[in-house]
Amino acid sequence: MSDDQQALPPCPECEGIYAYEDGALLVCSECAHEWNPEMPTPGERVYKDANGNVLVDGDWVTIIKDLKVKGTSKVAKVGTKVKINRLIDEDHDIDCKIDGIGVMKLKTMFVKKA
Hints:
Elements: E1 19-22, E2 25-28, E3 34-35, E4 47-48, E5 54-55, E6 60-63, E7 67-68, E8 75-76, E9 81-87, E10 94-98, E11 102-106, E12 111-113
Antiparallel strand pairs: 1-2, 2-3, 4-5, 6-9, 6-12, 7-8, 9-10, 10-11
């Protein structure tokens, strides 16, 4: 395999390392299991915005409600675009940085995918 090719993930069924691409799906050549690499594996938490769209690290989202910033008089305004730095398994599950406010955690229920 050349350096510019990315290694494919192992099969979620048998952990076999010999997978190949078939259109948008990956296929395991050992057990013939087919899966979509964009979909989460069973047991993995799925993060969804207010409209039900799946969110991943690096997505851009828009705030859908004015949100008061705890401990300050600042407000994160409706329509503010924010890049998700990472999704975390906590009550406020989006870790991001908002211009003029700084590092902040948001709930997915108050954002929509941009």
